[in-house]
Structures are given as C-alpha cells and as structure tokens.
Amino acid sequence: MSLDMKTGGFNKKSLTLMILIALCLWCSRFETCQAREGKYWTQSEAGPATSALVKKENGYGGNDGRRLSKFMGDMWNGEAQATQQYGKPSSFNVLDYGAKGDGHTDDTKAFEAAWTAACKVARSKILVPAGSVFFVGPLDGTILAPVSSKIWGSGLLQWIEFKELNGFTIQGKGTIDGRGSVWWNDLPSYGSEWESEVGNQLDGKMPSTKPTALRFYGSTGVTVTGITIQNSPQTHLKFDSCTGVQVSDFTTSSPGNSPNTDGIHLQNSQNVLIYSSDLACGDDCISIQTGCSNVFIHNVNCGPGHGISIGGLGKDNTKACVSNVTVRDVSMHNTLTGVRIKTWQGGSGSVQGITFSNVQVSGVGTPIMIDQFYCDGSKCKNDSSAVALTGINYLGIKGTYTEKPIHFACSDSMPCVGVSLSTIELTASEEDSPPLCWNAYGTVKTTTLPPVDCLRTGKSRYPTEC
Ligand SMILES: *[C@@H]1O[C@H](CO)[C@@H](O)[C@H](O)[C@H]1NC(C)=O
Ligand SMILES: *[C@@H]1O[C@H](CO)[C@@H](O)[C@H](O)[C@H]1NC(C)=O
User: Which residues cross the membrane (predicted)?
Assistant: First the structure.
C-alpha cells in the first residue's frame, strides 16, 4: 500500500508543513510492538514507513521558526507524562537529513532517514520546512497508531495533523489505521472480565482524550483522495477552519458500535466538496458543524453510522451559523438517522439553505430528522432561544425505515420555517409509524408516502443573526 502526499499551489505567507509524527510514536516502540502485537503488524522489512510525495511551492522566507515553535508548544501542552518531561518533542528536519527540496532531486532517502531517526525517539516529529519543493516516495506500509497508553501520555486531540497549508494533497491507496479498539473498549462498563482479557496487551487505561486520526486546520485548498482511514479512536478525518476542501474516493471503516467515530467532521470550513466516498463508522458519517457554508456532498455511501448530520449546534448557548449545504445522490444502510439537523436548546444563529436530494435509505432508523431539542444524554435545560432553521428542502428521499419516517421537532420559540418536502417514499421495514411535526412550517410539494399533513403554513422567514 502506499500513501502519497503532495502539496502545491500558491501561498501568500510563509508556509510550514508540519507532519505531526505522533504517528511515529508507535515505531519508537517498534520491537516491543512487534513482539506483543505481531498479529496486527503489517510492517514491511523496509521499516516503519509511509509512502509520501511531498511537494511545496511558492513559499518564501523558508522556515518560520517562531511560528513553528509556537505550534510545537501548542501541540504538546499539558503532557506532563511525556518521555522527555516538559521538554519540547524532538524534531527532525528533513533538510538535516540531506533533503534538497529543489523540486528535482529525489528526496525519498532523506525523508526515510529523518523518519527512521524520528522513530528511534519517543514523541518525535518530522519537520518539512516551507519554501521548498520535495519529491518523496513511494515507500510501502500502512500507518499504524500506537496502542500503548504510555506512548500516548495524557492524550492528544489529534494523531496526525496538517496545519496552515495552502494547496495540499494527500492521495494514494494507503491506509491509516488508528487501531481504535483499545480506546473504544477502554470503558469501565466492560468490567473486569474485559480488562483481564486484554490486560496483557495494554500498559493501562488509555487517556480520556481520544485523538482524531487525521486533522487539517487553517488550510486552503486541501485535497484528500484515495486513502482509507480505519478504526480511528475518535473522528476519522476532520477539517477545521479550512477553505476549499475536496475529499473523494475516500473510505472510512470502523464498527457501527465504535463510540464517537465520525467519518468526516467539518467545522468552520467553506467551499467543501465531498464525493465518491464510502463511510462506515460508529457516529455521523459526515458531521457539519458551525461556521460551515457552501458544502456539497454527493455520491456517498453511509453505513453503519448515524447518517449525515448538521449539528449539534448551539450547545452551551453558543451562536451557530451553517448555510448552503447540499447533500445529493447518497445512500444510507442501517444507519441511526438519515439526513438530520440537530440543535441544542439555548443556542442562536441559523441554519439556512439546506437541500437533501435523492437519498436512498435502507433499514434506516429515522430517515428525515430535525431535532431542536438535541441533548446528548446529560441533563439539558429548556430554553426559549434556539438556532433558527430556515429553508430546509427534502426531495426524493426513498426507501425503508425502522423507527419513524419523518421527525420534525422544532423549537417552541423559533419554529422551523420553509421546510419543503417532495417525492418522499418511505416505507416501514416492520411497523408503520406516522410522521411527527412540532412547530414546523412549510409545504408538501408532491404527494408523499406516508402522507405528511402535519406541516403548518403561514410563517415564512424571519431575520436571523448570521
Ligand atoms: C452554494 O454552494 C455551492 C457549492 O456547493 C456553490 O457553488 C454556490 O455558489 C453556493 N451558493 C451561494 C449562494 O453561495
Ligand atoms: C421542558 O419542556 C418540555 C415540553 O415543553 C417539558 O415536558 C419538560 O418537562 C420541560 N423540562 C424542564 C426541565 O423544564
């Protein structure tokens, strides 16, 4: 398998490509891991490696040392249990290992050398400075996450992170395996039987902070294509504060009962295109959070999982803004919900201009859902303010459900407005259940199955804060 990475494009300020080699943590314990977990080990003889094509262009000013060190500080804060206590993690600059970065020389050997050196040290990272063009790869291997609680220390928010990049592509057929079962199963509810069963493999409890497998932050023009991310401890692929994101031919694979393992998580990101992807996970296949707009999702298979969701928005009285999201030509199998918008009571802001079209469902709990009383199990207070929902369109939602075909539970003080339904054909796998509407205003444009006569009329738009 190979994982190719390349970056390109134009950037205004100096760029720093940081490959957070927390992923290297595992290889610092190479022998131990191999001895103990041989059955999971798919490492080639060439040693721990990922195949990478790293190419950077148009940066100027080279390495921004100040920002680098700040970033490193950010990343490693609060990890008192680090092998190198309170020290910065060791970093390995590819230039120090002979990389030329001239855009012509094959820098594979240098990257390999940096990788190998980094892998001898716990909590290390590899630096790829800006202002150069590197050609690297291919190497063989699957990237495996460490499964030892000692290596993870007090936990990380993300395992592999790319930050503040402009024009960056990860492509290839590689697999990033988070080996999350040690995290998912590390729950008190499994009791002593479970612990004794796996106790030998683990150094102890995993940290309570579960990492996202791959995260992009503050980047422009990011493409992820071809790769598979499986068994993440938490979210598989996350984009936060990114503009111009493209994800295609992407696969996530983790069990339906793995907790909080969103497939793709979007936050504060605009101009996002996700297509031709297969997402199986234990939480939302795609989760769209506040600050997202101009999101287009098509030709995605989802299941197992919780469906494609906007929200939960407005938690802890926050303001949330999501607009212009289109989800079309998707199929869902055995998911908890299909297309869903969920908001907490007490929030503000709005969700507007949302279209769900040509969604094929089979054995989906509730295919169409708006829940403005979302509460994740902890006690939630009633509150009159709410994130306003305006212009939510459903066209061609067809297939079978297991719980309820349609569930519109809108806020008492901020009813949903402009909900439209056309060509809905939802049949029960087992028992029929009627659609539910609460404070939902809108129109039914065609006959629907089951008939929906609970939408109210008379309210149209009201001003929203976004
Ligand atoms: C909505 O988003 C799409 C991309 O999905 C974009 O092409 C379109 O211009 C956006 N519309 C508006 C009004 O911004
Ligand atoms: C919240 O409101 C619902 C319905 O309006 C009511 O049934 C419930 O008891 C209320 N909960 C609290 C904590 O006030």
Answer: none
Q: Where are the domains of the chain?
A: 1-144
The residue whose CA is least distant from atom 10 of ligand 1 is 294
Q: What is the pLDDT of residue 107?
A: 78
Query: Does the pLDDT value for residue 99 go beyond 70?
Result: yes
Please work out whether the CB of residue 326 comes within 6 Å of at least one atom of ligand 1: yes
User: What is 212-237 written as a DSSP string?
Assistant: EEEEEES-EEEEEES-EEES-SS-SE
Lowest mean pLDDT among 42-56, 249-263, 427-441: 42-56
pLDDT band at 55 (very low <50, low <70, confident <90, very high): very low
- What's CA 460's distance to the chain center, in Å? 34
> Which pair of tokens denotes residue 261?
């393992």
Say if CB 345 and CB 372 are below 8 A apart. Answer: yes
Q: Give the atom of ligand 1 at the shortest distance from the alpha carbon of 296.
A: 5
C-alpha 403: how far from chain center: 27
Range name among 79-83, 315-319, 443-447 with the lowest pLDDT average: 79-83
Q: Give the pLDDT score at 186.
A: 66
Q: Where does 23-64 have alpha helices with state H? A: 30-36
The residue from 236, 265, 306, 407 that is catalytic is 306
Widest pairwise Cα distance in the chain: 70
CA distances from 206 to 113, 186, 410 (A): 31, 7, 39
Query: Minimum-distance ligand to the CA of 323?
Result: 1
Q: Closest ligand 1 atom, CA of 273?
A: 5
300 or 142, which is more confident? 300
Measure the CA–CA gap between 103 and 119, rounded to whole angstroms: 26
Q: Which two tokens stand for residue 24?
A: 């290297």
What's the 294 CA to ligand 1 centre distance in angstroms? Answer: 5
Which entry of 283, 284, 371, 407 is annotated as an active-site residue? 283
Average pLDDT, stretch 347-373? 97
Q: Cα of 351 to ligand 1 centre, how many Å? A: 15
Give the three-state DSSP class for 307.
coil
Type of residue at 451:
P
Which of the 8 DSSP states describes residue 181?
H
- The residue whose CA has the least distance to atom 3 of ligand 1 is 294
Q: Is 296 in the pocket of ligand 1 (CB under 6 A)?
A: yes
Task: Provide the pLDDT confidence category of residue 134 given band limits of 50, 70 and 90.
Answer: low
15/333: higher pLDDT: 333
**Are 443 and 392 a contacting pair, CB within 8 Å?**
no
d(CA 364, CA 304): 10
